[in-house]
Predict the 3D structure of the following.
Amino acid sequence: MKPPVKRMMHAEGGSIPSLHELLALMNERTSRQAIELAGGKRVGWAGLLFPPLGRFLRIWLLKGLIWRGFSGFRQAWAAALQLMLLRMKIWHLQNHLPAPGGPQGRVRP
C-alpha cells in the first residue's frame, strides 16, 4: 500500500501540491494539448528552443519575478518547462507517428 502524500501547508491555509503531483498534472495537461495541436503548425528545432526561453525571460524579468528570489525563478522555470514539454510532445507526434492514409511509420536514415 502506498503511503499517503504529505502536503505542505500554504500561509493562507491551503495546501501546496508536491513536486511529483505538479509534474504529473503538467504531464497530463501537456499530453492532452499536444494531441489537439499536433495537426497544426509544424514544430522545428527553433520552436523547441526559443519559445520556452522567451517565456522564461518574459515571466522572470518583465513580470518582475526576479525580485522574488528563488520562488520567482522556480515559477518562471515551471512555466517555461511546461511550454517546452508541450512543444516536444507536438514535435514527437508530428515526426514519429504514422499519418492517416500514409506510409506506416517513418523511415530513419
Observations:
- Strands lie at 8-9, 15-16.
- Confidence is low (pLDDT under 50) at residues 7-11.
- The chain has three helices and two strands.
- Helices lie at 19-37, 45-62, 70-96.
